[in-house]
Amino acid sequence: MTNSLIKKTFEDCKKQKRPALLSYTVLGDPSIKQSIKILNSISKNIDLAEIGIPFNCPIGDGPAIQDSSYRSLFNGFKNKDLFKSIKKFKNKNKEKPVILMLYYQTVFQYGENKFIKDCKKNFVSGLIIVDLPFPLNQKFAKKCKKNSICFIQLVSPTTKVDRLREIIKNSHEIVYMISMLSTTGGKLKVSSKDILKRYNFIRSIDKSKYYIIGFGITELNISSLKSAQGLVCGSNLCRKITESLKKNINPAKNLYKLTLRLKNKIK
Question: Which listed residue (29, 50, 67, 173) is catalytic?
C-alpha cells in the first residue's frame, strides 16, 4: 500500500511546477518544546518534514547535525518522547507528511513491530534508516508497506547500475539520492550539473517513483537543483539553530525566515 499523503504532496508540487521542499531538524533540539515550535513555524514553508531522532553514534551526520543531536540528548531527550512529540506536531499539521530519519539501534531497542505500530498510530508517513541498507532492509520494508509507511531507500554516487536497478525495483514511493561522498552538511564537491545528470539517469530507471536529493543543499545552491522532484535541506537549518542560540535569537523565527527564502528560490 502506498502512502496517500506523500503522493498527494508530490503531485501538488508537480502541479505548481516546483520541487518539494523537505526540511530536516533534530527532535528535541534545543529542547522538545522548542523543536516542536520550530516544526510548527517552518511547516508553513516546507512540503515534508523530515525529523531526525538523536543518536550518540551518528555515522552519517556532519558537525551541524551532530551538534543538534548532542543538544537534544544533553537536554534530556529520550526515545519515550519520540511519538508524544510527533503527535503534538501532527495534531496541528495533519496534512504535512512526517518522515523520521534515524538509526536502526533505536528501532531495535523499541522493537520493530511496536515501532511500526506506533508510527502508523501517530501518522508517520515515511522512514529513513541510515544504517539499514538494501537488501538487509527488505523484511523491515515489507512490514512498513503493509502499514502504508514508505520505507525510503538510499542510493549513493558509487552505487553501481545493477544494484541501482535492484534498489529502485524494490523501493516504495521515494528514493533518496545522496548528492556526494560525504557526511551531511559538507560543501558540495560536485557541480549541480553533474548531480542532475546522475539524478536524471537514476530517475529514468523507473519514473513512477519520486526521487529526492540530499546532502550539501543550502540557500546558496538550491535554485540550481530545482529541476529535481524533491530537495532536502538539513544541515543549513541545524546551523541556523546553533547560530540563533549563540546570538540569543528565537530559532523558530530564524528558521521560518530561512525556509521561506528556500521556498522562494525553488518557485
Answer: 50
**Side chain identity at 179, as an amino acid letter?**
S
Q: List pLDDT tens digits, range 39-58.
A: 999 999 999 999 999 998 87
Give domain limits for the chain: 4-261
Indicate whether this model's pTM tops 0.85: yes
From CA 134, how far away is CA 71, in angstroms rounded? 31
Q: Who contacts 186 (Cβ-Cβ below 8 Å, separation ≥6)? A: 62, 180, 215, 216
Exactly one of 61, 118, 166, 219 is catalytic; name it. 61
12 in catalytic set: no
Q: What is d(CA 58, CA 131) in angstroms, rounded to the nearest whole number?
A: 10
Q: For residue range 90-99, what is the model confidence (pLDDT) as tens digits?
A: 999 999 999 9
CATH tag, 4-261: 3.20.20.70
Kind plus residue range of the DSSP H or E element containing 202: helix 192-205
Give me the residues paired with residue 98 across strands: 49
Show the cell assigned to 210. Answer: 519520486
